[in-house]
């Protein structure tokens, strides 16, 4: 069922009434007083036998300039043209009423979103004419595009850590599942780094939560700079803990990335008076590498790397523990 208002069907049928009918002038007046733009195309000649004068106020083209089907096609956005024309022609040949949305070119070179609602008129079983209405749906399209944009933003926010701007735990779980499956299928190494800011509670207590938030954002920014490959993925795991997934990365390459992280943080020279290991902010890292078996769970790998991180903390912090798992 077509989605245009029921009244459109009544008016569409009236457009097929011959001009010799005594009340045709009334119908014409009614048609031309609406915002919807009525039109009629003769199927045999593919020419417009009528188009409402409202077309000029909407698109700038005079009614006289709408001679044949080519005028309709040429004034359509190139990206919409092939699909819309093919669809409308096939539906018309089949005698099926239909509608199509597309961008129509205005005389000043802009585009307006149009919905064409088409009724196929048959005579003796053959298509005789197409009659219909053009509706300006630009505002509706703007609303739809805005809603799509909002939906995209919501999806992005649901996978983004609100404080640091990098990915969150939820996104990490999604990416881990994908990369784990790739590594299982291709039997390639997968490395994971888990990082923890040393004595971050003491940092927060001493400098305040605003400074603590600034510190987390800076650490996330610095760690992101250490990425070597497009598929390297970093996320905030929770609190002051970060995770870094390194697809197709062996143990030696993962070691280099871990050392680069430590070096970049040292370069920042972030003061930490309450740290028990340094006057500057430091990190502890657990670094694990695995070539997953076909039935091995990704979660077990994360837990093993987390144990390496805790071992680094137990061994004095401010460094990394490595494992080939």
Kindly give the count of domains. 2
The share of residues in extended strands comes to: 15-25%
Name given to the CATH architecture of the largest domain: 2-Layer Sandwich
Biggest sheet statistics: 5 strands, antiparallel
Relative helix content: 40-55%
Mind telling me the C-alpha Rg?
Answer: 33 Å
Integer average pLDDT: 88
How far from one another are the termini?
61 Å
What's the CATH C level of the largest domain? Alpha Beta
CATH fold name of the largest domain: Alpha-Beta Plaits
Oligomeric assembly:
single chain
Shape: elongated
The CATH superfamily name of the largest domain is Reverse transcriptase/Diguanylate cyclase domain
Instruction: Give the neighbour order of strands across the main sheet.
Output: 2-1-5-4-3
Main traits of this protein?
325 residues, alpha+beta, Beta-Lactamase, Alpha-Beta Plaits, five-stranded antiparallel β-sheet, five-stranded mixed β-sheet, 11 helices, 45% helix, elongated, disordered N terminus
What does this structure look like?
The protein has 325 residues and is an alpha+beta fold. The protein has two domains: 137 residues, Beta-Lactamase, CATH 3.30.450.20; 166 residues, 2-Layer Sandwich (Alpha-Beta Plaits). The strands form two sheets. Strands 2-1-5-4-3 form a five-stranded antiparallel beta sheet, with helices on both faces. The chain has a five-stranded mixed beta sheet with strand order 7-8-6-9-10, with helices on both faces. Helix 8 packs across helix 9. The longest helix has 21 residues. The protein is elongated. The two termini are 61 Å apart.
């Amino acid at each position: 069922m077509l989605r245009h208002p029921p009244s459109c069907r009544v008016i569409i049928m009236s457009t097929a009434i011959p001009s010799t009918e005594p009340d045709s002038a009334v119908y014409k007046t009614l048609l031309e007083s609406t915002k919807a733009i009525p039109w009629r195309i003769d199927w045999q000649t593919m020419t417009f036998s009528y188009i409402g004068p409202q077309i000029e106020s909407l698109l700038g083209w005079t009614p006289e300039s709408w001679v044949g089907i080519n005028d309709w096609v040429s004034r359509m956005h190139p990206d919409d043209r092939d699909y819309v024309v093919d669809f409308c022609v096939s539906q018309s040949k089949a005698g099926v009423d239909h509608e199509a949305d597309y961008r129509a070119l205005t005389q000043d070179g802009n585009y307006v979103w149009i919905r064409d609602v088409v009724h196929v008129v048959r005579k003796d079983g053959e298509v005789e004419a197409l009659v219909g209405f053009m509706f300006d749906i630009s505002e509706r399209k703007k609303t739809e595009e805005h809603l799509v944009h909002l939906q995209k933003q919501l999806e992005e926010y649901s996978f983004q850590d609100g404080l640091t701007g990098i990915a969150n735990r939820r996104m990490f779980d999604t990416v881990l599942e994908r990369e784990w499956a790739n590594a299982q299928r291709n039997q390639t190494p997968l490395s994971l780094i888990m990082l923890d800011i040393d004595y971050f509670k003491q940092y927060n207590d001493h400098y305040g939560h605003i400074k603590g938030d600034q510190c987390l954002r800076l650490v996330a920014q610095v760690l992101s700079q250490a990425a070597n490959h497009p598929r390297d993925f970093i996320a905030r795991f929770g609190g002051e803990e970060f995770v870094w997934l390194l697809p197709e990365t062996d143990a030696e390459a993962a070691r280099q990335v871990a050392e680069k992280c430590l070096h970049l943080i040292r370069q920042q020279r972030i003061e930490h008076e309450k740290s028990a290991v340094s006057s500057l902010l430091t990190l502890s890292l657990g670094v694990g590498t695995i070539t997953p078996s076909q039935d091995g769970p990704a979660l077990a790998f994360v837990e093993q790397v987390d144990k390496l991180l805790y071992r680094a903390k137990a061994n004095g912090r401010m460094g990394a523990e490595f494992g080939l798992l």
